[in-house]
Amino acid sequence: KEKGLHEGCVEQMYRLFHDRLSSDAPLTDDAGRIRMDDWEMRDDVQDEVTRLWQDISTENVTSCADIDGYWDDFYRMFGFRISGVDYDADISPEVKIPSIS
Q1: pTM higher than 0.85, yes or no?
Q2: Residue 81, exposed/middle/buried by CB under 10 A (0-12, 13-18, 19+)?
Q3: Tens-digit pLDDT profile for residues 21-63
Q4: 82 phi, psi to nearest 5 deg
Q5: Closest Cα to residue 67, out of 79, 52, 80, 82?
Q6: pLDDT computed for residue 42 by the predictor
Q7: Residue 87 has pLDDT above 80, yes or no
Q8: Which of 40, 48, 50, 93 has the fewest other C-beta atoms within 10 Å?
Q9: Phi and psi for 40 in degrees, rounded to 5?
Q10: In sequence order, which residues have a C-beta less than 8 Å from that of residue 3 and are 6 or more positions away?
Q11: d(Cα 14, Cα 12) in Å, to the nearest integer?
Q12: What is the spatial distance between Cα 21 and Cα 62, in angstroms, rounded to a whole number?
């Protein structure tokens, strides 16, 4: 995130379609794979990961990594921790969907 390279699932999917599938740039690597890990595999990023990984522990993970941001992204990806949603509200599991009823 400090390098301005962080992207969530939606941002990475956008980059896949915008920068890879809709671009004149080469689509695949030498092995025929569409690689979306190019940002995190940059040498400067990997050097920083290697440096931090040597010192990270359960006690200092919040200061060495954005663990809170990780968990926030993880929960939001599955529909949790979304502002304005009352997760304690009673709901009916039976919902009519007009287009398929």
Answers
A1: no
A2: middle
A3: 988 888 888 999 999 999 999 999 999 999 989 999 999 999 8
A4: -100, 125
A5: 52
A6: 95
A7: yes
A8: 93
A9: -75, -15
A10: 44, 45
A11: 5
A12: 37
The per-residue pLDDT for 101 is 65
Cβ atoms of residues 43 and 52 within 8 Å: no
**Owner of token pair 């695949």:** 28
Pair of tokens at residue 84: 């304005």
DSSP states along the chain: -TTS----HHHHHHHIIIIIITSSS--S-TTS-----TTTTSHHHHHHHHHHHTT--TTTHHHHS-HHHHHHHHHHHTT-S-TT--TTS---S----GGG-
Place of tokens 């440096």: 51
